[in-house]
Each structure stands twice: as C-alpha cells, then as structure tokens.
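Re: that chain you flagged

S.,

Sorry for the slow reply, it's been a week of failed gels. I finally had a moment to sit down with the sequence you sent. For the record, here it is as I used it:
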Amino acid sequence: MKIIIFGASGATGKYLVQQALDVGHEVTAFVRDPDKLVLRRTRLTVLQGDVQFYHEVEEAIRGKEAVVSALGANSMWKYDAVVVKGMLHILTAMEGLRVGRLIYLSTLLVKESRHQAGWLTRRLAPRLIRSEIAGHEERESMIRQSQVQWTILRAPRLTNKVRMEVARCMLKQLRDDTTHKKTVLL
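Prediction finished late last night. Pasting the structure tokens below so you have them in one place:
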C-alpha cells in the first residue's frame, strides 16, 4: 500500500516508518527536517515539507492510498496552531484527492476518554498539558466531521516500548475495515 506518514521524524513516527517498510508498504515520510530521519531504504521517500502550507500537503498526499498521522505539538505546554491547521490541510487534501483512509494518533487524555487514565493522571494532566489536550480534541473534532474513513487511536503515556506497539497497532488499522469511523483505546 502507498502510504504517507506525517510526523515521521518524531519518536512514534520513526517506528511507524520502520515497521511500515518491514511489512512491505511504499512509504513517504513527510518531515520538516530530513536530517532527523536517518533511515534510508528502498520503498522510502523522505519528503521535506511543512503542514502549514496546503500546497505542500496536497502534493505529498497525491497518489497515496492512506494517510497515517503521528503529528504532535512542538511543545506540550502551549497550543500548536500549526499542527491544528496542518490537520485541516491533510483532511482537505484527502477529500479533494479522494484518499479515503486516515489513521490518527491521539491521546487517552482527551476529555472523552480521560476517565480511563489513572487517578493522578486524570487530575494533573488537564492542568499541566491542557494546551496539548485541547489541540488533540480540536483535531479529533475535525477528523470526525470529515468524509474520510478515519480511525483515531488514543494512546497512554508513550514510552519507547509503548511507541513500538502503538506503531504496530496504527499500521494494522490500515487494512481493518471494522475500525472505520471509530476510536480505539490502547
């Protein structure tokens, strides 16, 4: 499958790229800084771009069968309008180009699923990282209102071991029709 991964040079994104290649996908890694993604393999195209520019996003998505997003804010302490705008660009391009499948990595800490987190996390996270949570909630809302076949995965705190499993689960959703327009708690 021809897929594009947004946030490919991030901590989870790197696992997504590696695992997607390992299972035979043709991968385009969309990154701001190509030097942050040292992996080079056949079936991998590293594309430098910025999600705040619609034309770059649209051109990157053209010809793909699915989009995988592990985009995250530059700082968990402040609201990242660029990432929110980027998700709008991704969805608009997908709808215009008729690319139907989106896998989006969110957080368990959004209001709808926060009760699944531990007591201390439920109490502190909304105060400490409210901007990051608000960004995910806004992106989730846009995704739900879109015409694409989305799956939102909500992950707990991401350690390296958890990131490997999250990446595996995200890629598995690409071929799982039962999770279309559904949220999956990890």
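What I noticed first: The two ends are 24 Å apart (CA to CA).

Talk soon,
D.
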